[in-house]
Amino acid sequence: MAVTALEHRGGFCKQKLGRLCRIWDIITREPKTPEGDPCVRFPGHIIRKPDPCIYSQFLLMQLKRPVTWDNPDVRILRGGVEQNTYNLTAGTDYTIDVTVHNSSRDKSADGTVVHVRWIEFGAGGQTRNPIATLSADVPIWPGTTSVTTNWRTPDTPGHYCIEIELVHPNDANPANNRGWNNTQVHAANSPVTRPIRIFNRYPKGCPPIKEGGGPYLRPERVFLGWGVLGALAGAYLHHYGPQTWGVFERVAAGALLGYVISVAIGLVSEWVYAWIKRRRKDRDGKRPPEPERIPCHLVEIDVDSYEFTDDVGKTFDTDTAFDDKAAVWPARVEPNPFMFADDEVYRDVELLVDAPDTPGPDGVFNVNVRQGGVPAGGVTVRITRGGT
Amino acid sequence: MAGCTVVHEGPGDKDAGEGRVIGWVLGGAALGGIAGYLSAAAAVAGAAVTPLGALIIAGIIGFTALGLGIVGFFVGFAVNWFDRLFAHTPSTITMAGCILCAGKNTGFPPWNDNDWTFNLGGETLALLAPTDASLTVDEIRNRDAPEGGPAFPVIDASSRQAALHSEISSHIGDYAAVGGAIGSVAGAIGGALAGAALCVALGIATFGIGALVCLLIVAIAIAVGAAAGGLLGDAIGAAAGWIADELSDFDEQGEAITRGCLMTLSGRWVTDSSHQWNEIHDIESAQLIECNECIDATGKASGGLIAAVGIGRHPTGRDP
User: Fold this and answer.
1) DSSP summary character for residue A104
2) Which of A97, A220, A336, B204 keeps 20 to 30 A from B268, CA to CA?
3) Burial (Cβ within 10 Å: 0-12, 13-18, ≥19) of residue B214
4) How many other CB atoms are there within 10 angstroms of residue A359's CB atom?
């Protein structure tokens, strides 16, 4: 529950005088944090916001944590049984169940918009097909809210990935709002080869990077700065005006003339100044070396067998929850790494797993894809033994 | 309370903004000097100038230069204040990391802008969003903003760790800059009017050396008026800014932040041309992950905590 400063102070003042009392508190320097006098008081309207969130592989990959694409907050159900996104049947009704969290201790995330979409199975897909737009009122942590929707798969057979995206107008952390559920089960004997489609995020070429180049002429500096100074100087020279005019007419005329002349000179001099600064910057090399950029068409893929153990609060051990786990069986993706060619829309790669021939537990393989150094998506493939 | 300072890792001019304001002062003084000279020349047109007259003329030039130099300071400061931050593309970023320094630049503007200042850094410094712009932490720290720059990477002055400076603007700085500029111009005009009124009252406006003395009185009054008006406008603006700061957080409780707290900060990614570095300014939303002495903690432990809060498995704020 949100706790206001007013609520922290009881008694007559608060009850009878309300906001006047609050003003008195401010003037008399009431500490505005629960900890009393702080070293630095971070303003409450910035630091106390709701944070609707979901298991977001993109956030976790940015933090260099292992991920699973079997999203613990997203389930696809048919008859109450959880399904894998790859193996859905065409033209069939399913239920999508989404659990929305809120990491804020003191602000509920009411009115959180939950976008549910499907993307073609694989990684990096940019064509999003809406399934439903839902609304969730998420209580403060550790409360969660589940929202569900029905989805009838397209009549044309295909393989799917479910994308969830949360939107809240007052979100404390906009980086943890997107999660994927992208799973496949395959029964096989050694060796296993599974095709995975990697979509090019930039099929029309790398997006341009806008940077530097200045300084350029900024007219507002002239109109609000040099013009004002010129007007004052011009007013001071009112003696030069026609003596037939009154003093105030001459002062006004001098100010106007001074403003115009000063603006004209200012525009030229600021333009020249900016030009000189740009030339000098280029000539002297007064620039740090440009950071080495990862080509936007470079695709890098890693494979692991990490599995997420869900929990909350103090029982959620961050050391074990995010512990890397290497592929349980020999596994690799080919080709890897590779560069998309210009205009290449997607490329099919193969996950190659050398599964044991003997009976035993399943193997789970997360295929995590980065394009241009940033997370592009991934899939989780569960391989059960004994298939063909 | 002092704000947080950073120093450039390599080249970079931390005081670039001061140089620009000095340019405005010198420009204003030059304009004033020329205006003073021309005004005095008109007053003595054709007549022989005595040593006393020359001294008065020098005074007119000096005080007019001083007056417009003062106006140049306040106006130039305001112009530079509102024209120093250049937004990047993309304009909003979310970063996570350890608070290496938390401070507030408390004091009287324009020397102190009263902004909340933080240095975010440490082993856990990471870009959380956007993830579709091929950005890296290095680029966040030293890419030049369009039409701005240069921007050079900085380190926290105390811990000497790589840092991204981040600020929340106080209304005090904005309002004081505007108040100072308006006050100095109004003060200069008021001073001129008061000086002229004094001349008329003394009956010396049109008589030989009396005209020069009158100009000197007006010049002095302009200088005094500009200084007084600038300081008064600055003070009124600062007071209004303080009220606005309090009103903007009227119904909220803040959070005490110290160095060693893990946080995520979201806000506008800019190049501050006055200091030649990149920063988040303003911070639009923030989360306290935990205060766990992250400056000395391993990146792995802190990163895990940021991740746990990020996916809602752990709450924000200090553990009770």
Assistant:
1) -
2) A220
3) buried
4) 8
Residues A236, B280: Cα–Cα separation, whole Å: 44
Take residue B79 and report the two structure tokens written for it: 């112009």
Please name the residues in contact with A262: beta carbons below 8 A apart, sequence gap of 6 or more: A226, A227, A229, A230, A231, A233, A234, B31
Average confidence (pLDDT) over A141-167:
93
**Three-class secondary structure of residue B53 per DSSP:** helix
What pTM did the predictor assign?
Answer: 0.89
What ipTM goes with this model?
A: 0.88
The DSSP secondary-structure symbol of A225 reads I
Summarised one tens digit per residue, pLDDT across range B101-140 is 999 888 899 889 999 999 999 989 999 999 877 788 999 9
Q: Which residues of B touch A229 (CB under 8 A)?
A: 27-28, 31, 68, 71-72, 75
Nearest to A225 by CA among B27, B87, B35: B27
Contact yes or no for A197/A344 (Cβ under 8 A): no
- Would the CB atoms of A229 and B28 count as touching at under 8 Å? yes
The predicted-structure confidence for A66-88, as pLDDT tens digits, reads as follows 999 999 999 999 999 988 888 88
* Statement: B85-173+249-311 belongs to CATH 2.40.50.140: yes
Q: What is the pLDDT of residue A6?
A: 42
Residues of A in contact with B300 (CB under 8 A): 319
HSE on the CB side for B232, CA within 13 Å?
A: 13
CA distances from B162 to A83, B10, B102, B137 (A): 46, 12, 15, 10
Pick from B94, B103, B312: CB nearest A175:
B94
- pLDDT surpassing 50 at residue B256: yes
Q: Provide the residue ranges of all domains of chain B, joining segments of one domain with +.
A: 7-82+174-235, 85-173+249-311
pLDDT at residue number A7: 46
Contact yes or no for B286 and A172 at CB 8 A: yes
Q: Of A40, A234, A322, which is closest to B257 when you measure between CB atoms?
A: A40
**CB-CB: which of A228, A294, A316 is closest to B134?**
A294
Q: Would you tell me which residues 283-312 of chain B have a C-beta closer than 8 angstroms to some C-beta of chain A?
A: 283-288, 300-301, 303-312
The minimal CB distance from B312 to the residues A40, A101, A229 is found for A101
pLDDT category, A387, cuts 50, 70, 90?
low
pLDDT, residue A4, reads 43
The answer to whether the Cβ–Cβ distance between A39 and B83 falls below 8 Å is no
* Contacts with A, B 186-205, CB within 8 Å: 188-189, 192
Query: What totals of helices (H) and strands (E) does chain B contain, helices first?
Result: 6, 8
- Distance CA(A135)–CA(A140), nearest Å, equals 16
∠ CA B17-B18-B22, rounded to 5°? 120
B64 and A CB contact within 8 Å = yes
Query: What number of C-beta contacts closer than 8 Å exist between A and B?
Result: 326
Inter-chain touch A173–B285, beta carbons under 8 Å = yes
